Amino acid sequence: MGSGTDTGAYAYEQKVAVEAAEEAGALLSARFAKAHTVGSKGDGGDVVTDLDLAAEEVILARLRTHFPHERIVSEEAGLLEADGSRTWLVDPLDGSNNVAIGLTAYAVGIALCVDGSPVVGVVHEPVTGRTWRAALGQGAWCGTTRLGGPRAQLPRCGPVLAWTQGHSVSRSDVRAQALRGALELHSRRVLQLWAPLLGWTMLASGTIDGYLGYRAEAVDFPGGALLATEAGVEFRSLSGGPFRVGFDGPDSGRSFVAARGEALAHLVDLASAATGGTPAAE
Questions:
Q1: Is the model's pTM score more than 0.85?
Q2: Which residue positions form the known binding site for Mg(2+)?
Q3: Rounded distance, CA 91 to CA 150, Å?
């Protein structure tokens, strides 16, 4: 894996997660051109491909081999129940809608949560072969490079931001419309990637300035958010209050602003104004 997180707490768990993500990524890359849709989820048009299922099988096999008595929540398989406080979160193909139309913007995500909070986060991008990883209190890394997160200063031409929303958010959701509209008006660019984990790698690497999420998905959010947190990113609720990163609870508890310094204040102001500035709006 390189330096930084090869030893210390959760080193073994991180090693297994990296190996599983990279094995699944190799499968996705090899079969990308022949991917086909096998189903859909929700009413918003989100799809499931044969590659989702194949990559998931690879990852679950590794996790069950190394951690046979631990709970797993996977994007397609759902909850694989077990006792204890540890839960693995698996997104075998983040960006299924992109893959279905031949767009090479996708990733593999694996996270470990203890008592609902992330302690390991791994994101692998098959297209470039890069893997980002973080363990609680040990920084965020890509290869041997420790990630420093985004700059604290607000760019004069406006920030570049990423946006994510959960599958259950409808096109007619007025709060989502207000948030996206405010971002478009007051930012240089807003990335809507259909692959939220890629946004987290960019934020942790400092190539974008902030991230705003509305009712984010439980499976891919915690691992990506840990990468950002370990790179120095701060989180707030849409009204500017404290925010806890986790996967449990309703999706209304996963609406957030993530940035640092002036950019964080700028995003909180935009989000608060767009949602009326009240916790109920979150």
A1: yes
A2: 75, 91, 93-94, 220
A3: 25
